[in-house]
Amino acid sequence: MTIRTHILGFPRIGAARELKSALESHWRGDVSEAALEAVGQQLRARHWAQQRDAGLACVTVGDFAFYDQVASHIQLLGCEPARFGFDAAQSPLSRYFTMARGAGSDADHAGCCHGRHAHDASGHALEMSKWFDTNYHYLVPEFSPLTRFSLACERLFDEVAEAQALGHEVKAALIGPLTFLWLGKEKTAGGSEFHRLALLEQLLPVYGALLDRLKRQGVAWVQLDEPILGLDLPNAWRSAFESTYWQLNQVGINILLATYFSPLEENLSLTCRLPVAGLHVDGIRAPHELISVTDWLPAHKVLSIGIVDGRNIWRTDLDAALAVLRPLAARRNGQLWLAPSCSLLHVPFSLEAETDLDGDIKSWLAFATEKLAELALLKDVLAGHPDDAALAALAVSRRAIAGRRASPRVHRAPVAQRLQALSPTADRRDSGFPLRQAVQHARLQLPHFPTTTIGSFPQTPAIRAARASHHRGDLPAAEYQRQMRAEIAHAVERQEALGLDVLVHGEAERNDMVEYFGEQLDGCVSTRHGWVQSYGSRCVKPPVIYGDVQRPAAMTVAWTVHAQSLTHKPMKGMLTGPVTILQWSFVRDDQPRATTALQIALAIRDEVQDLETAGIGIIQIDEPAIREGLPLRRGQWDAYLAWATRAFRIAASVAQDATQIHTHMCYAEFNDILPQIAAMDADVITLETSRSDMQLLAGFGAFQYPNEIGPGVYDIHSPRIPATADMVKLLQKASTVIPPANLWVNPDCGLKTRGWAETEAALRNMVEAARQMRAA
Predict the structure, then answer these.
(1) b or e along 400-412 (b: 16 or more beta carbons within 10 Å of the residue's beta carbon)?
(2) What is the Cα Rg of the chain in Å?
(3) What is the spatial distance between Cα 42 and Cα 159, in angstroms, rounded to a whole number?
(4) Residue 97 to residues 101, 104, 106, 108: CA-CA distances in angstroms?
(5) How far apart are CA 520 and CA 515, in angstroms?
(6) 587 - beta bridge partners?
(7) How many angstroms from the chain centroid is the CA of residue 694?
(8) Which class for 383: exposed (0-12), middle (13-18), buried (19 or more C-beta within 10 A)?
(9) Disulfide-capable partner of 341 in 156, 158, 306, 610 (CB 3.0 to 4.6 Å)?
(10) What's this model's pTM, rounded to 2 decimal places?
């Protein structure tokens, strides 16, 4: 047998989040471009060495990015939006960060922000959207009839040369041309007719030149990622694949076409027939298609099987994997490539640093580094020559898999009993929205265009230092609580001074909107260093849901009640919804996700009831992940949306009519699921809309969304200070499609990543915008 191993991509943030630290230091002006580039070079060299040491046939080059791989392709392919007005004097890295963070990011470098950067069409950052159904955010390319492509950046070729100089065999990894166009959006003036697929003809010669450069550099294989082959593609897009890859194949370099995240279904035979040298398929998301792919794929082509889960952190059942691989290898005459299902970008770096993690649970897990070892072990066993060390590792794996299946910590009888006893009406509020709205307005006495924020306020160095000290055991619990209460008082005082109408406690005590709850729920465990990149320098540490979930005690009530005691204005209770906790965690794979979501919903339901009993009149249950949880195939949407929206209603519907339930959603396209969003029956929904210039609201208006809406009026992911006039324009646009009586005024998202100076400046302008709207 000839078994080769490779990966589609590797976590780029580093074992200790070195990239995050370097990026934020650079943005503050403390680290030069050259120093930042040096950090990137060190990380790449280290990660390539890991891949070589794990016995991979080649190292993957092109998966590293300082912010986002799609943004890197925008620069590589020479299609930076003209609206930014870049000039030749601006460095490529500076332009790159401007596209990602907005034209006002210069002010962040200087450590200040004085509101001099207007929120105009040329300055705002590229939109963000979720990378398929993951929690990774990519920057959305902008296309117009004037878009032109060229081979405009040397970074990829320089990185190939770096790897080759270190003695590595290189496989370059790129986003395929059709997926790149699919991920973008049309941006045309005056509503002119244009479709981005029309740009394919001029894009392909640039991809051809790119492949030719790599070929001349001595690169033997290029991985072109085309995950859209797992989607329900329009005919025009499906038809474009054959001619596209016929043209690219003329370059004469080996192309490995990579698909992942979804079964190929009706695209299976098309994909197998494409004129490429090899095909990678996702054996985790589409195991039922492996035999068909093996039969359809011509014998002379390489077949790469994604047999290790690149999306989750559970140890691979190696015996089950081998049972899948052996007949496939036999059908391919012993020729097979093994890989993770997708890029390892979506899992943490290594278990090595998890010295505090429970031993049993740790034995059930595999992060990116451990997945490299799993690939090596599978290769050795499948090839038929495992040594003693490999056999010992296989025995350890078997014991861990058996231990997890038999563990009494996984299943809790009271949780199952509560689910079985759930009433059919448990997901319904007592009254319809019109009656609830009248009762809530009478209770809350808010003005038109009420102002609020999404929940979090800046996580200052002092807050982070106190949390870290408390986690280390250096700061006693009583002193930590005293400091956090002082931070809450500070946040409330500043909100009062700004004139906000509905306040939040600022979430000083919370490390993350999901991790905070995961730490307090039975059936979940948190890691110490299990960081995953969400976008740019933003990293999250997803909880691990390993067993049945229940709430042993109140999680937020004391903090919220304390905050409410400091003000006469309404204080929102802040919770994360069941689908978002599910979607942003590493979820157990031994029961349906719908069951786990319902368990979490009951835990949040208990918290809602306790907050209401404590006198909190507004409770926000954030569900930013409900759209991203959609299956990639539309045929599976109805089933998912049925249990996902029911889980939200189970969490919320314990509230009485006078308690106003809010939810928040961001960075996704919602127009195609508006009936289901309406069915969630939240009294108020707040949305990210500023980067899309309120375009998202058109669908809500056409649908005649019945409840109240808070469209975000400024982008919190950019340090730019929005002008009051710009926010008024956005609100005026919103009021043409949503009844003004149903409009709230708020930022796009939480403010934890911003500094206080820019936060207060932006919110002051936002409050003034609301006043002007009321006056009008």
Answers:
(1) bbeebeeeeebeb
(2) 26
(3) 11
(4) 6, 10, 10, 11
(5) 9
(6) 545
(7) 22
(8) middle
(9) 306
(10) 0.91
Amino acid type, 389: A
User: Cα dist. 154→9, 78, 745 in Å?
Assistant: 20, 11, 44
**Matching residue, tokens 């192309």:** 255
Task: Tell how many helices (H) and how many strands (E) occur in the chain.
Answer: 28, 22
Identify the pLDDT of residue 692.
Answer: 65
Q: Which active-site residues does the annotation give?
A: 717
pLDDT value of position 385: 83
List, for residues 195-219, the tens digit of each pLDDT value.
999 999 999 999 999 999 999 999 9
Gap between the Cα atoms of 753 and 748, Å rounded = 13
* CATH 3.20.20.210 domain position(s) in the chain: 2-111+124-406, 433-775
For the chain, give the number of residues: 776
**Rounded Cα distance, 622 and 586, in Å:** 18
Amino acid at 620: Q
Output the CA angle 634-638-641, nearest 5 degrees: 110
Q: Are 382 and 322 in contact (CB under 8 A)?
A: yes
Q: In angstroms, rounded to a whole number, what is the distance separating the alpha carbons of residues 69 and 174?
A: 9
Q: Say whether 282 sits in a helix, a strand or coil.
A: strand
Label residue 123 by pLDDT band (50, 70, 90): confident
Q: Where are the alpha helices (DSSP H) in 526-673?
A: 557-564, 578-583, 593-613, 637-652
Which amino acid, 343? S
Retrieve residue 683's tokens: 């009294």
Is domain 433-775 classified as CATH 3.40.50.300? no
